[in-house]
Amino acid sequence: MNQSNSQRLAVIAFALLFVANPCRAQRVAQAEEDLMAIMGRHQAIGLSVAVVKGSDILYSRSFGLKDRERGELLSSDDLFRIASISKSFVATGIMQLVDEGKLSLEDDVSRLIGFRVRNPAYPDSVITLRMILSHRSSISDKGGYFTLDALNPEKNADWAKAYNTYAPGMDYQYCNLNFNLAGAILEKRSGQRFDHYIRQHILEPLGLYGGYNVDDLDSQRFVTLYSYNGEANRFTASPAAYQSRAEAIKDYVHGYSTPVFSPTGGMKLSVNDLARYMIMHMHYGQARGVRILSEESSRMMQAVLTPKSGYGLALRTIDDLIPGKALTGHEGIAYGLYSAMYFQPEEQFGIVAITNGCITGFKDDVINDFLNAVYNCLYHNFLL
């Protein structure tokens, strides 16, 4: 099987590395040996990683298979559906509109979306944009989240099912519907279709290839995702991860049909471009000499609003991924994929890790055992 150009270049680069810097080359070799052992323990199908220091990608490599049935090797230029890390792109877009004065985080979501968004147990309590971006809105996924009909009283007689029993702003519950709603608000207030806005205002300025609309992307670069069935003890491919949106958008309603692109989890991006996006957040809104977000808004996204969750505005801070380090970022789980993008802004380092399928338990409610081991391996080999 022929290697991709990126894989051949990686082999050449690492060969030169061994000659020019034997000490670093030894650390690379040890890290890769450790990563392969971790993959073996968890039966991981593929793994892409990137380590960032300052403004640069210090190390990037992919291991294993992009597609098991075809025996195709995984490349660091291949595209993953990165799952809930996608939420940070929505919040970044919202904060760009805040910077422009088109939105306020204290705006009433009802006014922004165009139908009444109120917890029926607290009808006088305003649900704000800040609340939905921090999962403190009291909205839940109990009634589903693939359409805004789930909480629209004009469309759904069971709309009240979409709310929890506590008052808006008084508690935290992770909720995908919050971000599909936020994506629709971004669309209404920007005047651009959601996927177009994200591409033109975040991806293109940063020089990144990817997006929410699979039909705009090179399908040959999509990484097959594999869900593990414990009872059957087997992995199954998940084609739904990259379903075409062509039919779904034929009757598209601007500012309402937005969930067809899954703002909450539908971004497709390579590990290297996700690392470059992370560098922007690590530098509070700028990368490669390009500022796409004010420092104030970027810091606001990272500020913890709910201590028990560590959540800010689509970014959370955790302190048990790497012992002694408070890291900020997000993780994703969908269709068998596990992803993590976490960085340390004061010490200026970050790590991205994505697998398209593995067997793992969870270290806690956020990061699983597999990604935890990968992060600690990369930190100890490249950042200590």
Descriptive terms for the model:
about 375 residues; alpha+beta; Beta-lactamase; 2 domains; seven-stranded antiparallel sheet; three-stranded antiparallel sheet; about 20% strand; globular; hydrolase; Beta-lactam/transpept-like; Beta-lactam-related; Serine hydrolase domain-containing protein
Characterization of the model:
The chain has 384 residues and is an alpha+beta fold. The protein has two domains: 5-82 and 208-257 and 267-382, Beta-lactamase (3-Layer(aba) Sandwich); 91-190, no CATH class. 32% of the residues lie in helices and 19% in strands. The protein contains ten helices and 14 strands. It has helices at residues 5-20, 22-42, 87-99, 109-113, 129-133, 176-190, 194-206, 271-282, 295-302, 369-382, and strands spanning 46-53, 56-67, 72-73, 80-81, 210-211, 226-229, 234-237, 268-269, 286-287, 290-291, 316-322, 325-334, 337-344, 349-355. Helix 2 runs antiparallel to helix 10, helix 3 runs parallel beside helix 6 and helix 3 packs across helix 7 (194-206). It is globular.
CATH class of the largest domain: Alpha Beta
Proportion of beta-strand residues: 15-25%
Average pLDDT, all residues: 94
The percent range for helix content is 25-40%
Strand order of the largest sheet: 3-2-1-14-13-12-11
What would you say the CATH architecture of the largest domain is?
3-Layer(aba) Sandwich
Category from helices, strands and their pairing: alpha+beta
Count every beta strand, where a strand is a DSSP E run of 2 or more residues: 14
Give the helix tally. 10
| Low-pLDDT regions | 14-18
Q: CATH homologous superfamily name of the largest domain?
A: DD-peptidase/beta-lactamase superfamily
Distance between the termini: 37 Å
CATH-defined topology of the largest domain: Beta-lactamase
